Amino acid sequence: MPERPPPKECANCGTKIPRHAKACPECGADERTGWREPSVYDGLELPDAAWEESDSPGKPRPPDRRVNGVAWYWWCAGVALLALLVLGALALR
Description:
Layout lengths: L65 E2 L2 E2 H20 L2
Antiparallel strand pairs: 1-2
């Protein structure tokens, strides 16, 4: 399989790559470890707010409604099931 020439610019770090280089002189990327042609998204500069975990930076996250790591609706389902079992046992007497 013939070797492909390296791209003009490293898609990982943006450094110019010499014509016959086997790897990027800056970050060490090569065809085996992720050298690829630049994508249309490589030059896209996203604001830092795009990487925040919350959906909207100004809005606080809703509180996590869990009891002992279990969601509230599973607790309600468990209590309802327990009540049905107790009522079923009382009805059999």
